[in-house]
Amino acid sequence: MAGTKQNGTGKLAANGQNGYKVIGTRPVRPDGVDKVTGRAVYAADVQMTGLLHGFVLRSPHAHANIRSIDTSKAEALPGVRAVVTAADLPVAEDKIEDLGEGAINLKYLSDNILAHEKALYHGHAVAAVAAVNPHIAQEAAELIEVDYEVLPPVMTVDDALAGDAPILLDTLRTDSMGEIGAEQTNLASFFRHQRGDLDAGFADAHLVVDRTYRTETVHQGYIEPHAATALYSADGQITIWTSTQGSFAVRGQVCEILQIPVSRLKVVPTEIGGGFGGKINVYVEPVAVLLSQKAGHEPVKVIMSRADVLAATGPTSGSNVRVKIGVDANGKISAALAELYYEAGAYPGSPVGAAANVSLAPYAIDNLQVDGYDIVVNRPRSAAYRAPGGTNVAFAVESVVDELAEKLGMDPAEFRILNGAKENDRRPDGLQYARIGQIETVEAIRDSEHYQSSLEGKYRGRGIASGYWNNWGGQSSATAVLNPDGTVNLNEASTDIGGTRASIAMQLAEAMDIEYEMVKARVVDTDTVSYNDVTGGSRTTFATGLAAYNLGQQLIKEMKSRLADQWDVGAGDVSYEDGTFSAGGESLPFVEAAGLVQREEPLMASSTVHPQDFGPGFSTQCVDIEVDPETGKITILRYTIAQDVGKAIHPSYVEGQMQGGVAQGIGWAINEEYIYDDEGRLLNASLLDYRMPTALDLPMIETIMVEVPHPAHPYGVRGVGEVNIVPPAGAIANAVYNATGVRMDKLPISPANLLEAMWARETEPAELVPGDD
Amino acid sequence: MAKKIAVETTLNGEETVFLCEPRQTLLEALRDNLGLIGSKEGCGNGNCGACNVILDGVLVNSCLVLAPEIEGRSVVTIEGIAEDGELHPLQQKFLEHASLQCGICTPGFIVSAKSLLDDNPDPSEHDVRLWLAGNLCRCTGYDKIVRAVLDVAESDA
């Protein structure tokens, strides 16, 4: 049974629901007090005796051969302790490894840390300095002389695929469904998903809409810049303190880049100030290790500036997307085609593969084809960003779907319900769905007070859109120590970006039938537990939560067994209910049992999991906007999200994920973009000019948690972190159409882009209000 | 290396003397010279508010103030918000409302919100959003932050 609940102020489910005692409540997170008092230690906060400070010199050119680097003047500056360039990196092999979230060629990984022969984007690291303070390190870096041969930049899909395009990577050949091309190219790969008969489907169509869209590069925008401190000890042992979504992903990448065995590197994750996919790749970590080694085994801290974060880390791909969908006279989709051209940045690896899965996922379609192209351009190497690739393609698909519904005279929610994917339907790549909640999210929006309300006024409009994200399982490791006073120390390695210590501890508490406050959850380093995948793919509360559930089951089972010995009964005779063990005439509360069972031998448990059957998430969203016809500025008047959350373990943090993802999606839709000049130099590398939404730009964001429990998790958990960012651009574009009569074919729908489109349109804006029928 | 100068100031209510280089910002001096790491650097040019402190009763970006400028003046940082070992109501409500996810922007928001409530104890939602527009949060969408601040204002009313 699906259930829905509207967000509130903390009163909801105060005592849990559905028989749960802890799950569904809203306790304070374990790391909360440290974070509101300023005591929590993030990456830049690490201090130690003898600490040196690093600074990275970066390429001022988007595309250039590096003829030579002269570091002698920098080395001579008083206070400088080490200078490194790519010559200090081991020669990297041209081989593919999966070290975090997706495969990467190790040569490209190494080249991105410090450029070898070529600088491939404005901001590409070329050298680094360690000095006694950050100012001297910067002064020294400016004394490094780099002789560049500047090459013409390749900035977009169209530039990169042009016949005479300059080539970024000499050895790159197109991988076309496993066949490797012979020619030099900027097209790294091509793939196709298809099923049914596309031509017949379009031939049968009553109506076809065929449109092409453009989206710009955007950044994850975490408020904490990348930072790392490394100590290369004289005995060869290396420690890195860093802000990362995955300490083991850092270990894996750094060990490959520096060619050291994992036994010599310990990664200590600090608190992390946001990631959204952008803190999986390493940037400054290997540089800090090299500097520490060269500086005589002193610790070195490297903190990136905001400008460097924007210029050289994480953005997600700009893209060109074509979508063509045909429908029969009843509005049923008869065929769909999507062509996705994604800019990977300087090295292959855009999220086009994931985007293809997202593209048509909310719909049941018999005849479809999805083509994906991964293209290198002179922009920073793209990184994962919340439902990677999904927002681009959903903007396109949801715009076409809205236009089809309008031309058919159908309500856009009813169109999505008629065509909605459900259990046993298939994703574009063929994966068959288990129980999913797409249609339930559309129904929740359709039936919401928001959608049923009227919206009046010129230049106001309402739009809806749906989105999909597959989520992930991944590998997790955790241990639990039972203390004699009945508290439990939970040691897990999933770095906590949004309250997962709480959501994981809650599952352990539920499994043991103890109070949440009795579980002390902490995030530990790579030497303390076994391998653990990144906090990404919306997997942490699902998979690490599953490990915590297993720990709870193990501890209770072992406690029963030891009590059975004490009480001289069979192990199966001991029962545990409402926090009390009993057998025969004996009974003992949990806290007393915790002491008794450990008089002879301590008790701890460990669990490793790798669940494959993770449950996908769907979200449908509704937005009301107003357009200022003088300036083109969009004001968000009202926003409602319905999302299939499986089971909300900590509803406040689930709402927070939904609201935060939508806020990022709104920024992507209406304001955020990388702006480059003709030479490929990034013009807006500051938080003034790369403008993310502020509190003043947003209303309260209403959440409807649709709970379709995931059958493969003991508490029904699905990932909730990512799918929320997929629909906003489409929903806002559809609202813009209803407000102005203009269908936008590019993101962002910034004031300038919207005004231009409105001026290009001849007709007057219609006062069209969908959902008000 | 530049010659260091001594700065006398009142820091979170305590008379304090520290050494700094003339080119160090207040943020850098707080973090690196005084060990007060609660003020964060998110941008270094006054656009994110993560470093906000209250200087003589006025909310400022500590990354835009040079350390020597606080000579003879009074500074309140996130470390000075809790009183007598008790969390400030803003700190308590941020916890109860789950107003933080990653938490890096939280000290700046709490300092800014305190400055708002010092000036205007009964703000509207719009007042709160306008005042906090100088603080960027990328995790929450601001909903739960605004609710926490309004809750504190209402509780005090």
Automatic annotation (TrEMBL), chain A:
Residues 37-152 form the Aldehyde oxidase/xanthine dehydrogenase a/b hammerhead domain. Transmembrane segments: none annotated. Keywords: Molybdenum, Oxidoreductase. SUPFAM superfamilies: CO dehydrogenase molybdoprotein N-domain-like (SSF54665), Molybdenum cofactor-binding domain (SSF56003). The keyword Iron does not apply. Pfam families: Ald_Xan_dh_C, MoCoBD_1, MoCoBD_2. The lineage of its organism: Bacteria, Bacillati, Chloroflexota, Caldilineae, Caldilineales. SMART domains: Ald_Xan_dh_C. This is Xanthine dehydrogenase family protein molybdopterin-binding subunit.
From TrEMBL, chain B:
GO terms for molecular function: 2 iron, 2 sulfur cluster binding; metal ion binding; oxidoreductase activity. The keyword Iron applies. Keywords: 2Fe-2S, Iron, Iron-sulfur, Metal-binding, Oxidoreductase. It comes from the Bacteria. PROSITE patterns: 2FE2S_FER_1 (PS00197), 2FE2S_FER_2 (PS51085). InterPro entries: 2Fe-2S-bd, 2Fe-2S-bd_dom_sf, 2Fe-2S_ferredoxin-like_sf, 2Fe-2S_ferredoxin-type, 2Fe2S_fd_BS, Beta-grasp_dom_sf, Diverse_Oxidoreductases. CDD domains: fer2. The keyword Hydrolase does not apply. Residues 5-81 form the 2Fe-2S ferredoxin-type domain. PANTHER family: OXIDOREDUCTASE WITH IRON-SULFUR SUBUNIT, XANTHINE DEHYDROGENASE IRON-SULFUR-BINDING SUBUNIT XDHC-RELATED. This is (2Fe-2S)-binding protein.
